From TrEMBL:
The chain crosses the membrane at residues 7-29, 41-66. This is DUF697 domain-containing protein. It is found in: Membrane. Signal peptide: none annotated. One of its GO terms (cellular component) is membrane. Coiled coil: none annotated. It is a multi-pass membrane protein. It comes from Rhodohalobacter barkolensis.
């Protein structure tokens, strides 16, 4: 069944790509004909240049796909020849990573130290993306657009983390990472609903307890913070799952990764809720003042 679905999707992807390519080439030819109406030389030169650009755009990804190295698959255990080969290959990849900044990466200890450096760097990306998810969705309060925005943020976060751990991941690397992260992060049974609400409630009580006392219209703020906290937590969790897939030395069970990512995301959530709530409160607090001052601003413009 999976093979048939994969085959159908592959054929569909090739068919759609071919149609898009035909449309692009057709538009380029029409534009070249338009330039040819001005002067025949313009038309011929532009057509050749357009076709070269189109060929490069199609062939460059294929060339990169075969040029870049394949993904490194962690072994089952941290002992034996397979683990030693993996550490050796991983050492070479980490040694060429500009974020690591180590003179030489050799052996398990150096690899762990290098991964620790990459963990810190990826944590910055995870927190930055979660903060953006919290503030944007807490202020926006638009379900459909927020869902698309969060999905885009999370895919970009996975891309950033993949680049942090592997300087130039291949298409295989990214497809493997996206598939595993999205399946692991969004599986329905991965986190119990009661546990989820408990995490968000705990983070909210730590993050907004001292902030809300200064704000009128507390209900509006709480609703905004609930929405922002939910999306921030999911984003943190996706980032932590991606981090663990990229930085592991041995294969880990999906359930173990989910549980660990949930626990780490919960620890990071309180700080993000606290910082984000201050910004949300600031915007909501200014809104009535801006509305009240509108008539006066209009009067000044009319004068």
């Amino acid at each position: 069944m999976k093979r048939e679905i994969r085959r159908v999707l592959t054929i569909t992807a090739f068919a759609v790509s071919a149609l898009i390519l035909i449309v692009i080439v057709n538009q380029l030819i029409q534009f070249a004909n338009f330039l040819g109406g001005i002067h025949p030389v313009f038309g011929q030169v532009s057509l050749i240049l357009f076709l070269i650009v189109a060929a490069v755009a199609v062939l460059a990804p294929v060339w990169l796909y075969f040029k870049l190295p394949g993904r490194l698959i962690p072994p089952e255990t941290d002992e034996g020849a397979e683990f030693d080969r993996y550490i050796e290959n991983l050492s070479k990849r980490l040694g060429g990573n500009p974020i690591v900044k180590m003179d030489q990466v050799s052996g398990v200890d150096d690899v762990r130290e290098a991964i620790h450096v990459l963990d810190k760097e990826s944590d910055k990306s995870i927190k930055r993306t979660a903060n953006r998810a919290f503030i944007t969705t807490a202020i926006s309060q638009n379900g459909a657009l927020d869902a698309l925005f969060i999905l885009g943020l999370q895919f970009r976060l996975i891309w950033e983390i993949a680049h942090i751990y592997a300087q130039r991941p291949t298409i295989k690397d990214l497809s493997y990472l996206y598939t595993n992260v999205m399946v692991t992060a969004f599986i329905a049974s991965s986190i119990d609903e009661a546990e989820y609400y408990e995490i968000v409630e705990s983070s909210m009580s730590q993050g907004i307890g001292s902030v809300l006392s200064f704000v009128p219209g507390t209900t509006m703020v709480i609703n905004s913070v609930i929405t922002g906290s939910s999306n921030a937590f999911l984003t943190l969790r996706v980032g932590k799952v991606a981090q663990q897939y990229c930085g592991t030395l041995v294969k880990r069970r999906r359930q173990s990764i989910r549980n660990s990512a949930t626990a780490e995301a919960a620890k990071m959530l309180a700080g993000i809720v606290y910082d984000g709530t201050k910004i949300v409160v600031k915007h909501i607090g200014k809104a009535p003042l801006r509305l009240a001052s509108k008539p006066f601003r209009r009067g000044k413009k009319e004068e």
